Amino acid sequence: MGKVNWWLWTKMLVAGGGVIWGGPALVRYLQPTDEELFQKYNPELQKRSLERRYEREKEFDDFVVKLKEQAKSDKPIWILQAEEEKANATNMARQQKLTESLRLAEEVKARREAMRKEAGLPVDSGKQGK
């Protein structure tokens, strides 16, 4: 076993401490606060940011509430989120199909009325007498 070089160990501990504590301290010192960043925005961006702040906070609150509800389940959160996304995609697809069907029905109705006008027949007002 050799002689312990205490000077080397001291230098290494000081250098390690400087990196471990000094690096994050330097980042905190140099990183601007949210207010400083906001003040650097041009006035139009500041106005838009203030207008959308409530919406963003509401979206975030909804997200947190949803996470809390999902956390109560026995299933992992990522599985619950995948199931929810799948259900939302299915609902959106169903809604798109319904919208497309309504649009096509309106198109067919408009064509039918146009053909009736061309033929000189009375235009159906949408109500059929029984």
UniProtKB/TrEMBL annotation:
<feature type="coiled-coil region">
    <location>
        <begin position="79"/>
        <end position="118"/>
    </location>
</feature>
<dbReference type="InterPro" id="IPR012420">
    <property type="entry name" value="Cbp4"/>
</dbReference>
<comment type="similarity">
    <text>Belongs to the CBP4 family.</text>
</comment>
<keyword id="KW-0812">Transmembrane</keyword>
<keyword id="KW-0496">Mitochondrion</keyword>
<comment type="function">
    <text>Essential for the assembly of ubiquinol-cytochrome c reductase. It has a direct effect on the correct occurrence of the Rieske protein, core 4, core 5 and apocytochrome b.</text>
</comment>
<keyword id="KW-0143">Chaperone</keyword>
<feature type="transmembrane region" description="Helical">
    <location>
        <begin position="6"/>
        <end position="30"/>
    </location>
</feature>
<keyword id="KW-0999">Mitochondrion inner membrane</keyword>
<protein>
    <recommendedName>
        <fullName>Cytochrome b mRNA-processing protein 4</fullName>
    </recommendedName>
</protein>
<keyword id="KW-0175">Coiled coil</keyword>
<keyword id="KW-1133">Transmembrane helix</keyword>
<dbReference type="Pfam" id="PF07960">
    <property type="entry name" value="CBP4"/>
</dbReference>
<keyword id="KW-0472">Membrane</keyword>
